Structure formats: structure tokens, C-alpha cells
Amino acid sequence: MARIRSVRYHVLRDTADRRVVTDDVRLDRRRDRDIFENRIAFVSLLMHPDGKLYCGITAFNTDIFHRFDVEKRTFESLGYAKVAEEYEVKIHRSLELASDGTIYGASACLYGLEHRLKAPGGTLFRFTPGEDTIEKLAVPVRHDYIQTITLDEERRLIYGLTCPVYRFFVYHLDTGEVEDYDYMGSITHVSAIDDAGGFWGTWDKREHHLFRYDPETREITYHRHGTPNAREEANIMYIGAGPVDVMRNFGDGFLYIGTTGGSLCRLEPKTAAVEYLGHPVPTRRMPGLVAWHDALLLGAAGDNRGGCLFTYDRGTGAFNHLGPIVAPDGATCYRVHDLALSPDGRTAYVAETDVPDRSGYLWECELET
């Protein structure tokens, strides 16, 4: 039976200053220099065919894009601060891989609303590994920043959801056209595209129902249901956010949904029916889900020092708890935010965020099957 064989963590930067910093605090580079320069969190992970792990982080100094060498276990800044404006302080679940190796990303913010009209808005960008160039493509929505993107390479589209106003947009890569569908009232942490090309998200600030966007007709179908316990599981990520922590298409005709309450569900796109599969771990949050061996899914979950890994067998419906993410020195993964898998499937990398009094770390879990 699969389990976590060993755990270690990697520190990009950390602070001696252990003050708790809320999202809407505007730090001063001189007065709060240690926190401004060194308090970071890992929020997006992308394993690239070049064998490197690309990391989107939260960083007040706008140095938000890094590359991790998995063999040398070293970090390298990719220089986003050179092209950033001051409100671009994280890449929040917004790294997408194209078939030619190009990485598409988007910038997010942490500003208080009193800064809204000063902030230009989140940027879509393109990064080419090897050339290591960052090309800014567009600011799709003024003043709002981009929490998550989904790439449809076949149709040359990037879907995006924004914050602090929860808006939905479609960006056309070839023409630069932006379809702005404005306020949806809800937001997913990660969305997905079904086999027919439809993009799925959530709408309605109270019930957090599902919606499907059809790129052929440019029409949205607003369903009148969501995931199980949607109302109860909303607001767990942050105020106003919906219950969908991650949504993935693994090629078997379904979309798999991890919820903020820690449940795994399955969406049948043709009927929009949602099936509850189970609650595999004793914790909230389930932002990480990847395909693993054969019919298995590997998931990362955990909140409030409850980080852990589990598997789900799509053939049998069985769950297996692989164990907690705890290092030999007793350090624990505070809040899971993303999951990436090494090409050989032997190592899981987990992003950690929102630690109250230190930086988030990159966690490396060696797996045994």
C-alpha cells in the first residue's frame, strides 16, 4: 500500500521577524524590510518537461516567479520583479503549460480596497524556458487581479477569474480580444475544461452554483446546483470564495473536484450531475489533485498544520491515506496550496501558504508504492 516514505522542506526565504501579517497590510520597504523582502509563500507549482519545478510565490517585493532544480535542490529567481508593478505580489494558481514548453501565467494581488483605483490590474504573461524571457500579454480587467487561469491550447484561449471582484473573462491568444463577463459572485480556486471544450466555474454569492461556458457559442449555462454542502464550504478560502478548491480533467469523461471542506466529488459534464465520492482525510482544504499510477489520483489536503497526502482509486472507489506531511525535525505543513508530481511519479512537491508567523516552504515527499 502506498505511503509517504520521507519528507523534507526547502526554504527559499524566511524571516527573523515573526509578526503575523494580514493580507491588507501595506508594508514599508524600510520600516518592515525583513518581512517585505523575505516573508513569502508557495502558491503555484508546475513541473516542466525540462525537469525543473516552476514556482509561483507570494512576495511583497514582487519577486514572484522562481525555478527549483529538483536534483540540486536550489532555487533561481526568474526576474519577475524587473517587469512588475507594485501590486503584482503573487502568482496564485496561475501557471499553465503549453505543448511546446511555453508557460502561461498571471499575477495576483493583496491590496486593501483603498488602493483599488491605483492598482492597474493583473497581467497575463508568457514565459519561455531556455530563453527565460517574460512577455506581458495583457491586463484583461482593469484594477482586478487574476486568481486563477485555465489554458485551452486547442482553441487558443485563456480563461481567468479575478479578485477582489469575482469576474470571469476569456482571453484570445491570437487576437488579444478579451470577453469580459463581469461579476459572477463566486470564484473557484482552480477550474477545468471538459472533453467538449466547455469551461466550468461557479456563480452566485450565496449558493455558489456551477456554470459552463461554451467557446463555440460564447454562451454561459447557469446551473441551479453546485457541489454538496456548497453554502457551508464557501468562505473557507477567503470571504466570498466558493467551495471548489481544485477541478481537474483526467481524461475519463468526468471532472474531479476537491472542495474546501476536504471532500472529493465527480462532475458529469453532459448532465452537470455532481457525485460525492468521499471525505478521505480528517481536515479541510483539498487544493491538489494529480493523476498517478494507472487509475489512481494523488491528492494533497490540509489546513492548520494538517497537511497530508491521499490516493483515490477510480476503479474501486477506495481511498488510502498516505500520511501527514511532517519533517524529521517536527516541522509540519501548515496549509496546502498546490501539488506537483515528478515525472517518475516517485516524488510529490507541495506548496505551503498562509503560515501565520513564518514563510511558506516547498515540501518534498518521497513516495513508496
Notes on the protein architecture:
The longest helix is centred in the first third of the chain and has 6 residues, at 33-38. The chain is built from 2 helices and 28 strands. The model has no long low-confidence stretch (mean pLDDT 95). The chain is globular. The chain has one domain: Neuraminidase (6 Propeller), CATH 2.120.10. 46% of the residues are buried. It has a 4-stranded antiparallel sheet with strand order 1-28-27-26, with no helix packed on it. It is 3% helix and 43% strand. Strand 24 and strand 25 (319-324) form a beta hairpin. It is mainly β and 369 residues long.
Question: What key phrases describe this protein's structure?
Answer:
mainly beta; 28 strands; four-stranded antiparallel beta sheet; Neuraminidase; 369 residues; single chain
Q: Per the principal axes of the C-alpha atoms, what is the gross shape? A: globular
N-to-C SSE string, H for helix and E for strand: EHEEEEEEEEEEEEEEEEHEEEEEEEEEEE
Level of helix content?
A: under 10%
What is the level 1 CATH name? Mainly Beta
User: Stretches where pLDDT falls below 50 for ≥5 residues?
Assistant: none
CATH topology: Neuraminidase
Counting H and I runs of at least 4 residues, what is the number of helices?
A: 2
The name of the CATH architecture is 6 Propeller
What's the pLDDT, averaged over the residues? 95
Percentage of β-strand residues: 35-45%
Main sheet?
A: 4 strands, antiparallel
Radius of gyration: 19 Å
How many domain regions? 1
Give a count of the beta strands, DSSP E runs of length 2 or more. 28
Structural class: mainly beta
